[in-house]
Amino acid sequence: MSLRHIYLDNNSTTPCDPRVVEAMLPYFYDKPGNAASRNHPFGWVAEEGVDFAREQVADLINVDTKEIIFTSGATEADNLALKGVFEMYSRKGNHIITLDTEHKAVLDSCKKIEKMGGQVTYLSVKRDGIVDLNALENAITDKTILISVMWANNETGVIQPMKEIGDICAKHGVLFMSDATQAVGKIPVDPKAVGVHLMAFTAHKMYGPKGVGALFVNRKNPRVKVTAQMDGGGHERGMRSGTLNVPGIVGFGKAAAIAKKEMAQDMKRLSRLRDKLESALVESLEEVYINGSTEHRMPNVTNLSFKHVEGEGLMMTFNQEIAVSSGSACTSASLEPSYVLMALGLGDDLAHSSIRFSLGRFSTEEEVDYAIEAMKKGVNHMRDLSPIWEMYKDGVDLESVEWSEH
Ligand SMILES: *Cc1c(COP(=O)(O)O)cnc(C)c1O
Predict the structure, then answer these.
(1) Protein residues with CB under 6 Å of any ligand 1 atom
(2) Does the pTM exceed 0.90?
(3) How far is the CA of 51 from the centre of ligand 1 (A)?
(4) Ordered structural domains, the chain, with CATH
(5) Quick check: 3 pLDDT over 70?
């Protein structure tokens, strides 16, 4: 990638690895069959492609091929897991526990479940973004059927204590679901080893194509079932109807196989680059804060707040050259501070002044060096123009200033 376009937004989506594209190509024209066509070779060839990919995906997370349900992505997998469990286990209870910092695909599914008569507890997290295990255990009631905790957060990269949560779920006989979209393919993820029964993930966050994902559903001890949310031809063991996206699934499989082979070296290289970026900015600029745990964190992510600098404005100083994300979300009416950062206890201002850098397999040292210089220049430029920064430098106690209101 040219220096003019540096992509440090891999948590939004990753480029598709060229080896993945190559594996997919035959399935668009030479092998055009429907994997459900049982009575001619076109169907068999397509099915073989899907079977092989299912093995590759299952192998990456150490589960059985029968436990993989292909979907259109992690959003659909989250919906299927949450709503599917809620419907299937309604006789057992109606209570679900999740976190404030989950992805919208989980939070909005939970909101829908509340409208359907469910009860949902949204736990707050500690300052480092990690769940309080005592609060989690105390939230369990005799109506609790499911606990849903993401493996790694998309904004901060913070990794939750999966084994400890799995133990609590096992102790209370509650199902454990995880949105592991940001973790799978980037760090070792073994749901059975930590007691996860349902797990959502997606190809396009691990160098595969967009529009294909999977839900892992545990089949033994316990045998977990979900009510289908899509009615039709009964594909995917009846849990997800719809013609399989054969090229997409083949690409997902290839991405999984590459991840399995190259994960260890990618992790090592990316954590070094991430640390270089992070420490260069923290050391050379004043008032830079790291958001979320630095101990339990994805190797490719850093989320930084640059005090008294508005993140969206800062991004405009370099977004022709460097792609990152800010801690503000554009809603129809206004710029809202990230609910994830607010849940960590940041104020509005620090949340608005945050930038997420997410590195990926194709990030280079040269790009990171360039980004460091561009960030320093941008932050200094913004602060030079800022009367608030000037007051801060003059030692004015900003908390005590009475701003005139209009
Ligand atoms: C990207 C993402 C999703 C959504 O995945 P899609 O495949 O785009 O639907 C869900 N959860 C997390 C944590 C994500 O980062």
Answers:
(1) 73-75, 103, 105, 150, 154, 179, 181-182, 202, 204-205, 213
(2) yes
(3) 24
(4) 6-12+264-393 (3.90.1150.10), 18-258 (3.40.640.10)
(5) no
